[in-house]
Design a protein that fits this description.
Helix content is 25%, strand content 20%. The chain has 7 helices and 15 strands. Strand 10 and strand 11 form a beta hairpin. The chain starts with a helix and ends in a 6-residue tail after the last helix. The structure holds magnesium ion.
């Protein structure tokens, strides 16, 4: 009954365009009072049906050498080959990078670095590039450009297909900090695909709480695995850890080579627990704040329910917050329910069997996890009633 009712509520709310904080869709599952409850560092229960559903993202398509792919539906495009794409980039010099006839973004040597107009922070970033077919220069002089995350950390772009150089300056390196774990480049003239996950350093009260890190795939091969940023990196000098701005522009480097780019897009990432995110292991303070918020939302939701459905929902809020007033209310509601059941005919009880077994299982869960006081009178009373009805007998 609870499931049916919840589905109806969901339909009504969805039709009204109201998206409740506590996912009503979740209530369609019979997995309340199920996994371990929230604890000091986790505001959600294990398998919590109140936890919001992940948003739908339509995936894009992969690129081939001949044709660039398409980004996922929630990506923000920085360059897709369209004429207007150039307007997503700025530079200070008169000489400019160009959009080629083939619809690629090409570095004009001497035009300087370019910056995205968009400012963003932690992201999934997708970039494709190709080095000139005509091989010129050696080491750092061959097909060199670079992708500067937050304008600070360079993920090296370099034609190292057959071109040794210092390891921490290789294509896919965090330049000056960490070499790539492999050289997975195609030959020059072919498109190289970089997929990057960037998490900036986070500081609180002047103290580093997360060093920040970057993960990089070159042509699908993992080359940086959550590499700590250590301040960002640089040429010849060892960088020192430091905070990065919350949002900043992406920079592409002019290193004097006509490197071309295509299919550049990013997806902003949800905040980590250290930045106020509510997934993962939280500080006790943050977990408690979130638990209180969830409890309040569930109690609000319970106002639309009646009878034992309401009791179950109000009781559920105690998993998140052991609020004295709510505890009292649950005891009163439960006692009233027991008093009514004691007056009910065996036929009436039989009609409510599924519902009452559900309440018993919730009581057991709450007592097992010490979320109701040991002397919670309604629990043994209901057990007794169920025993008297013969519902415990195996058939
Ligand atoms: Mg470079």
């Amino acid at each position: 009954m609870q499931n049916l009712r919840s589905k109806t509520l969901f339909t009504v709310r969805a039709a009204a365009g109201i998206v409740p904080f506590v996912s009503i869709l979740g209530a369609a599952h019979a997995d309340r009072f199920y996994g371990d409850p929230p604890d000091a560092n986790h505001p959600w229960a294990v398998h919590d049906s109140n936890r919001p559903q992940p948003p739908r993202v339509e995936p894009g398509t992969f690129s081939s050498q001949e044709k660039q792919g398409t980004p996922p539906s929630d990506a923000i495009v920085l360059f897709d080959g369209a004429e207007g794409s150039l307007a997503n980039w700025t530079s200070s010099k008169e000489k400019k990078w160009i959009r080629t006839e083939a619809g690629t973004l090409q570095c004009t040597p001497g035009a300087g670095d370019i910056h995205s107009v968009a400012e963003f922070g932690d992201c999934q970033l997708h970039v494709e590039w190709t080095a000139p077919t005509e091989v010129r220069g050696n080491s750092q002089g061959r097909g060199n450009s670079g992708i500067f995350l937050a304008g600070e950390t360079e993920i090296q772009v370099l034609d190292n297909f057959d071109n040794p150089t210092y390891a921490d300056g290789f294509a896919g390196s965090v330049y000056g900090v960490n070499p790539p774990m492999a050289n997975a480049l195609h030959k020059p003239g072919e498109w190289q695909v970089y997929d990057i996950v960037f998490r900036r350093p986070v500081y609180k009260d002047g103290e580093e709480v997360d060093s920040g890190h970057v993960t990089v795939f070159v042509n699908g091969v993992l080359v940086q695995d959550s590499t700590p940023l250590e301040g960002g990196g640089g040429h010849k000098s060892r960088s020192k850890p430091k905070p990065f701005p919350e949002k900043s522009r992406l920079k592409l480097q002019d290193h004097g080579n006509t490197v071309q780019y295509r299919n550049i897009w990013y997806r902003p990432l949800v905040p980590r627990a250290v930045e106020g995110g509510t997934d993962g292991r939280l500080s006790e303070e943050a977990a408690m704040a979130k638990r209180k918020e969830i409890a309040a939302s569930i109690r609000e939701d319970s106002a639309e329910l009646r009878g034992s459905e309401r009791l179950l929902r109000v009781m559920e809020s105690l998993c998140y917050e052991q609020d004295e007033e709510t505890l009292k209310r649950v005891a009163e509601m439960s006692d009233r329910m027991i008093a009514r059941l004691k007056q009910a005919s065996p036929e009436r009880l039989e009609e409510r069997k599924g519902n009452l077994m559900q309440v018993r299982s919730a009581f057991r869960y709450m007592l097992n996890h010490k979320l109701l006081p040991e002397g919670f009178a309604a629990a043994p009373a209901l057990e007794e009633l169920i025993e008297a009805q013969g519902w415990n007998e195996k058939k």
